[in-house]
Design brief:
The protein is mainly α and about 260 residues long. The protein has helices at about 15-20, 25-35, 45-55, 65-75, 115-125, 150-190, 190-205, 205-225, 230-245, 255-260, and strands spanning about 80-85, 100-105, 135-140. Strands 1-2-3 form a three-stranded mixed β-sheet.
Length: about 260
């Protein structure tokens, strides 16, 4: 299996591998757990709102209310999710005086042996009616239970390692982009004969891939600049660009025959 991670500028969510790779959780429950953990601590989100968002997305593969209810109940049963009722300060006349908070964690902290008064308080509370969860808030694992020193150190170490890996990956991507630009700029300075011989090396070594990349170049020019289809040099340069992009995807060094320019 090849794993490709994208560090989105919109943010990303670190999750303990014990949860992500748990074989005691259904795939559906793990998906819901990941969604809930992506919100900051104290964020006001209701399960009813999540279901409305999923319905609004309009994708037929997205689960409905009953499936989500079963996933929530599974997370609660296995200790990843718990509820408590808290009083509402200064409620409006006739308004409800209690609201339900839901705490969620990427470790099964709320199992039969929660190990803390906060967790026990959550565990002993009455679960809300999932069919009508108005006023329900989700509190994620940051601050919803008492962490011991070992857990805090492990989280800090995991976060620092993730940040370091993200920085390394970003630097590697930037270096690869600079390398590809340098090669393409050098290829664009070759004369027509040298450029043709460079592509001939590609065709001789990987004939099928050569045809695929050249066809991709022709298709792009056909859509965006049909007049350039008559320019062999333009097609060659774009084919070389496609070849560079193709062989750079796995992060390995580019083939010698693709970067060895003919004299």
């Amino acid at each position: 299996m090849r794993v490709i991670r994208s560090m989105s500028p919109d943010g990303w969510t670190p999750v303990a591998n014990t949860a992500a790779q748990s074989r005691k959780l259904s795939w559906r429950a793990k998906g819901l757990l990941l969604d809930l953990l992506s919100y900051p601590d104290g964020y006001n989100v209701t399960f009813d709102g999540l279901m409305k968002q999923a319905k609004g997305a309009g994708d037929p593969d997205v689960e409905g209310r009953d499936a989500m209810r079963r996933a929530m109940q599974e997370l609660e049963r296995k200790g990843y999710l718990a509820h408590r009722r808290v009083p509402v300060e200064n409620p409006a006349p006739g308004a409800q005086r209690w609201r339900t908070e839901t705490a969620v964690c990427d470790l099964p902290m709320f199992a039969n042996d929660p190990g803390g008064s906060d967790s026990q308080d959550l565990q002993d509370s009455v679960p809300p009616d999932f069919s009508s969860p108005e006023g329900q808030e989700v509190i994620n694992n940051t601050g919803s239970y008492k962490k011991n020193q070992q857990q805090e150190e492990a989280e800090q170490s995991s976060s620092a390692l993730a940040a370091a890996r993200a920085g390394q990956a970003a630097r590697a991507r930037e270096e690869r982009r600079a390398e590809l630009k340098r090669l393409w700029d050098a290829a664009s300075k070759l004369d027509d004969g040298q450029l043709r011989r460079l592509l001939l090396q590609f065709e001789q070594k990987r004939p099928q891939k050569y045809r695929e990349q050249r066809q991709a170049a022709l298709s792009q020019l056909g859509r965006e600049a049909p007049e350039d289809l008559h320019s062999v040099r333009t097609v060659d340069l774009l084919s070389y660009d496609y070849a560079l992009q193709h062989y750079s995807r796995d992060g390995k060094p580019l083939p010698d025959w693709l970067v060895r320019f003919p004299r």
